[in-house]
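V-type proton ATPase subunit G: structure, please.
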Amino acid sequence: MVCTHQPSHHFQGDRRSPKLWRGTLKETTADTCDELQSAQNSAGIQTLLDAEREASKIVQKAREYRTKRVKESRDEAKEEIDEYRKNKEAEFKAFEAQHTQGNKEAEEEAGRDAEAQIAKIREAGQKSRDKIVEDLLRGVLGV
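Here you go.
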């Protein structure tokens, strides 16, 4: 920044002769301008540092938010997966029960059919028992 002060501004109340303070005026004006410029630079630097701190806070908050959001998303996905798994397990159990029931019914029906055929064979054996025993004895004894 360039100092825009007028030399007379710095020495308005000085009653010395212009010849006496002319050199002092230039030095004082230069010193005052340097001090003013230094103060402005210092204030500018402080403003930049404050802005940098504020930006760091914003970035930190954004990172924390992102981390929190990732964790929440992971938890939500876990819950959805668990729910999906439970639904599929329930579907499988229903399917298994339905088809197992069908197999049990088929096994029971086959068992009933087998029992019916065994009963027929026994009945036929009871009817022909005497004849079968006689035929066996003839065959063995040769009578």
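Notes: The chain has one domain: 18-135.
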